[in-house]
Structures are given as structure tokens and as C-alpha cells.
User: Fold these one by one.
Assistant:
Number 1:
Amino acid sequence: MGLRIFETDPEAAPKERKRFADDLVGRFRSGYSINGRPASLTEWRVTTGDPDVADAIVGLYGGDAPQTWDTKGEDTLEVFTKAEKVKILLDGPESIRQEMVLWGRAGAIRRCDGVEQTGDEAKGKPCECPASFTERKEAAKRGTGCQPSISIFFRLVDDETIGRFKFVSGSWSLVKDIVSVEKKLATINGPAYAWLGLEVVEFDAGGQRRKFTKPVIDILGPAA
């Protein structure tokens, strides 16, 4: 028989942590929206529906106090941290999922793996996107081709008890980097430590100095 001590003091009973439908406690994000326009960040933004998780993130990585933001999802709180990178724990190769998606106003129009379509109705049919990497990017920019959708599931090494987080990116640079990441995870074939960070890249374009922020993941090795 289990203990019944909290029956006499229900206010002291442990509160069940609110989780997303897919057992996640929050999301790491590399950008936000300003007047409906996307803007990139150089330090991680974390969203969650659990005030305890939001407070824990502030305690670990600093930043402003949690605040609400306009969203249709369950992660109604956001924290702008002071962390450019965080050390994470990946369960294994299955912690990273990739696909290419052509989005429309009502949702996904087409999904593929770069060679074949993966949607239920068109599964196995040849991909309709261009073959070359450059042409794929141009088609995605025009809204006629699929764009990357990379999902990374992880726990925070600084406090694994908080729960599992998710980071989703459509970065074309991450598409190239993720190839070596997956090979390293396949070699380890088990839990692994990694850095998940945001890196500022500067370059010259038409005589003007420009920069953008890209997400990076660096596998450190097997988890103890």
C-alpha cells in the first residue's frame, strides 16, 4: 500500500508537471516574431506551458522573467535566455528526425525525403523537388518546393529531471551539418552528449557586410 500522508495535507502534494501531448515540457527556439515578421536570435528562447519549467530555465540560463506570448499551442510562456549554447543529452540516433515539407496555408501539401514522397497518399512516388541542392533552396524560397524540417529531442545536462525538450529547424546549413551528426550518433548507437548552439555567420554580399544566425549541434561523445 502506498503512503497516504498527502491526504491530510493536499496542498503539500507534489504537483503533476504539465507536458505537451507528445510528452515534451518545452521547445527551444532560435527566433521570434516582430510585428508578424520573423527575426533570428543569438541566444536561445525557450517556450513552455509549465511555470516551473520556465522558472527552471531562468535559473539555469538567466534571462528575463517568463512572460506570455501569442500562440495557438500549449507553450504559452516564453523565456529569452542568456545562453548561446546548451549541453544536451540525446537518447540516440532516433533523437533526430528529418523530412522535407512543402507547406501551404492549411498545412503540409507534400512531404518527401529528398528522393521519394513520404505522405500517406503519395508514399513511394518520386520527389517532385529539383535534384540539385541549390535548386531545392530556390524552389523552397519561391514556395514551390519542400523545405527542411529537422526535429531534435533532448534533455538538458544541467538538469535532466526537468524533462524532454524539442528544437525544430528549417535551416539549410543544418541540413549539411546533420549528416555528420547522424553518422556520429550511429557510431555511438546509444545516449550521447552534445552542444546545441547558435552561431553568428558574417559574409560579404554585393559589397555589404551581412550576417545571420545558424543552429549548430556538436556531438561530444557517449553519455556516461
Number 2:
Amino acid sequence: MNYPPNQRLAYGYREQGEGMEIPDEHEQRYPQSTSTPQYPGMQGFQDYPGAGMTPGMPGMPPYGTAQYNPRYGYPGSVPPQQNQFPFVPGTEQLFNNPMVANAAMHYGSQIMDSGKEMVNKELNKYVSVPLLKHYFAVDTSYVAQKLKLVVFPFSHGDWTRKFDATGPAQPRHDLNSPDLYIPLMAYVTYLLVAGLALGTQDRFKPDLLAICATQALAWIIIEMAIQLATIYIFNVQTNLNSFELLAFAGYKFVGIIMAILLSLLFHRKGYYAVLLYSSAAIIFFLVRALKYQVMCSHDPNSGYSDAASSIYSSKRKMYILLSIAVTQPLFMWWLSYDFISTG
């Protein structure tokens, strides 16, 4: 169709010779655009891989199709990798390392050593640990001979204590030296025998056993407190200390155990017979063992001597010695009569 020149210029058409190519029918119907097409709902996803790709590339599905993922791009593309933390070995792998294991053992030994020093420092404020170890320095031979001496003290001849360069000899080197091992084991055995006696009489209860343990310990403390107060009030100079008083007070549990066991076999008659013998044995044992500790003073060069003691001081020492020995049978009866088997 031919238009006037002014109308052709108004509509933007030129003749073919005027430098303007006439688009064909396909280009007019489907114009190409160099800009990235916009799709509804995809304005916020411009940072994903493939956002700037031209649609229609070989092997790539078009935008907006079901095969396209707006966040990770096309199928087969690698998702963006997040920052990975460095490798942390497990506990087993860490301690399998010899250097780490040695360092941990060294550090643990240092902590235990410092804790031990702290405990010893706090304990030494109230109790002398080296002195306490001295009274537990025993062996099997000493324990057997000491038990024989406590039960049968009448045939023993030499009751003097032995001394060395550091002071009194350890119990395993001196049979006459008091110890704390036998009193402690006798106290524990006393509780077991008391539970056995209550069980044979159908009276066993855990509460009764706890009361028995507390009562026995309380009487030991009361006895020691009375003895120390008496020695302090009468101003008596002795070689005894609190550990030795505790040891001599604990030897009576040997006789208590014998009395309770014999009561299971012979009932009241067996109990009182063994109690009388044990009372006489413990009195004789304490009088002979405490004589050199209470009545005499010891000098490393000259040994035991009582010449420096006055008559009045000797009487006070004798009263204290007899009070310690004579009160033992009363405590023995008080701590054992509840467990007598009546048959």
C-alpha cells in the first residue's frame, strides 16, 4: 500500500532505499529484547546462580518452569557452601594422643598433691598426723601378741616402754606401746557382734545398731574428757597424751566382744563369767601398763625415774591411775548388757 510521504514519516516508515530495513512478519510478531525479562514473584531472587543467564540456552529450562529453582538455579547446580568450622577432635581421639594424655596426668597429679597438702595443713591444726601414724604402725605379729596380752596379762613380766632416737618406739617394735589399730577394729567388731546378738533374739533393727554405735562412741568421748579434766585440775605431770588415753580406753571392747559371744552359747551364766574375768584382766592390764606412764617420768639418758615426785604428787597419780582402771568394768557392763541372750 502506498501512503503519502508525510503520512509515512508520521508512522515511522521509510522506503526501502532510505536506510531502513523493514522487519519481517516473524520479528514484528515476536520482538527480541536484550534486557532480562521480569517475572512476577521473582524480584527478590537476583543473587542466585544463573540469575543473569539468557533464557533459551541449550540444556537450560526456561525461567518460571517447574524444573527451575529460584534459590539454587538449575538442576545439577551446586548450592552455595556455608562457612565450615575447623575440625574438632573427639574426646577419645584427644586422650589417645600421648602428649595430651601425659599433660593431663601431670596436671592431675599436681592437683592431687596440692589438695593433699591443703588437707594435711588443715588437719595438722587439730590433729598431729605424724603422731597419729605412729599409733597405727603395727603388723600381724604385734596384733596377735597384743590381743594375747590384753586377754591374758597376768603372766607378762616386763612392762617398760622402749625408746629410740626419735622418742617412743613404734608399736610393731614394742609390745608395751599402745596402739589405735586394735581399739578401732574392736569397736567395729563390737557393732557386728551386737547386730548378731540382736538378730538371734529377733530384735534387730538398723536404728538400734546406729544407737549402739553412737552410744559407744559417746561414752568413749565422755571417759576421755573426764580423764583429761582430772589430770589438768590436779596438775599431774604424766607421759600420756590424748591418743594413748583413747587407745587404753578402747582395749575394753575386746572383753565386751568375748562376753557377748559367750552369752550366745551359755546365756546369762556365760556372759557374767566372761565379764568378771575380762574386768579383772583389763584392770590388771591398765594398772601395769599405765604405771610407768603416770607414776614415773622418763629421761632418755637415765630411763624411768620416780625419785623427783613428792609423796603428795604420787598419791594424786595413784588416784588417777586407779580411777582409769577401775571404771573400765562399769563401762563394759553398760555397753553389753542389752545384748545378753536370755535363752
Number 3:
Amino acid sequence: MDSAAASTALMAQLEALADCPLAGECLHIKAQLPHTVKSVQVERPLFGLVLHGTKRLSTGQQAVQLRAGDVFLVTGRCHIDAHNAPDPVSQRYLAITLNLCDEVLHAARILWAQPLLPDDTQLIALPAGSLADALHTWSSALLQGHYEQARAALVQMVIWLCRQGHHALLAPPPPRLADSVRQLIAAAPARPWLSRDVEAALHLSGASLRRHLAAEGTSLSQVLRDARMGHALELLYTTALPIKAVAARAGYQSVQSFNRQFEARYQLRPADIGNH
């Protein structure tokens, strides 16, 4: 098979993940309208692939432009502005994203077994062909529901990227209480969270919770809002749920309040993504 045919076959296999119920680890980001979403909070290394349309990602330090067939990685905690645009012919925007889980990163650190060099890279962009073998193995394993093989392929992918000098992927971020609070809320965003619920779950007093979050430059109300907004953004990109249902699943009884807070958070109206 020549390189063009191999590339086409790989893209078709990756696109099949969007309709595969076994590919539960992946998010399939869809949009029908060009739009920009501001200050998306990324908590951990993130892998993605553009299948249809174009994407531009930018942080305060870097910007990358991506088209169909390009892979992107976010190396760790940051805020990102993203512009997504459907293909002008097919009118489709489709990307696959996947959080690199602790098991994958831990295994890659063990196998790398070398000092990590200073690396402040936040965004990595490269053609899918650079990772063709790993992407083929990963997507084939997911399509068959072989998750251990899929994660092994991700480990090899991360190690290959480290060989190219991208050590930031394996640098563990400093622990933050805000991350633990966010994970707790993200597991049940519709729950009517009160401070005492978080205090009990994390075995902290109210004063300790407030003091630690303040030291990290945030507050419980801000973490609660960010966790709910992040869940809502994921639902808007990956489902065709009505906005009222998205608001309810994110913990908002009032659609008007949800729309207002969403637009203030991302400088984008929920309807502007165009999936509803």
C-alpha cells in the first residue's frame, strides 16, 4: 500500500472511532458552525486529532494551526483559546480528543527512566503520519475493545514524543487542592454542592478549604463554576442534547442563567457551536 493509500486508510479507521461504542475513552468533538471558545481549562496532558475541518489553538505562549489529519497534544495544565471551523465542502468539524490517564503517564515515566530536561512547550502539533504505527495500533485496539493494548500504544506514543524532546508531557504537575475539588464536582456536576459536602469528602475544615484554595488563587465557587462549565462544554461538543438538558446536567435549573454564565466563561454562546 502506497503512503497516500495508507494515510487514507488510517484516517478512515480513526474516523470509525466516532461511531464505535467501544471507544469510550475518546471524546468526539463535533460542530456545525465556525466558532471560538475562550480560556478552556485543561487539567492534564491531552491528545487530539482533527478529522474534518480546521482548528487553531493558542495559549499565552504558543499557537498552532491544525487541519484534517493533524495530531495535537497539550502537555499539561493551562488555559487555551480554540477556534474550530467546519470543512467548507462537507460542512463538518470533527476531532477526537483523549485525556492521557495517570496509568499511561506513569508507565511512560517508568519506561523512559531518564532525567526529564526543562521544557516549557504547551502545545505540540504534527501530522498523523508521524505517529501512524502507534495510531493504527491504538485505534485498532479500541475498535475491538482491547483497552490494555490501546493504552500500551499510547505509552509508546508518549515515549516517542519524549525522544523528540517533548519532555513536558512527563513532568508531573505540582499537586493542587483545586484539582481534587474539581474532580469531585466533575463526577456529579448536577449535585447541589455545598461547602460542607466538599469538606466532608476531602476531610477538611471549612477554614482549611478556603485557605488552601485562596493560596492557589481560587475559591470553591470558582472551582464549582469551572467544573460545571467544563462538563457543559463537553456535552455541547459531543451530544445533540437540547441546551435546556445540558444546563440541567451541569447543575443549572435556569437556562437563562446557564447561557449567561457560559458566555461570560467562554465568550461564546452555547448555541454558537451549532449542534443543537
